[in-house]
Fold this protein.
Amino acid sequence: MGAPNGEEFSLVKWVYTHVDLEVGVNHEELLEATDTWVAKERESSLKVIEHLVEIAKRGLHFERGSGSLFKFLVDRYHYSESAAWRRVRAVEACLRV
């Protein structure tokens, strides 16, 4: 979700206003639910890297006017520089295999 009216996005504020965990959830249920979400997060991260590898192979970032995959990720997907760098390094590792 984007921040309304161009306000700076705050994850902490978003979590407190959008995440509605049931008060009655016990510790084990909370841990099991978190296990599930972490697995989904890993799966989605893998899919993103797979797509970025294909973008790099096709040179779509150049075609879209970016001089590098890093700049493409920052400009198009609004990744922070550190997040973009980690993804570029992952793509490079995949392309070496």
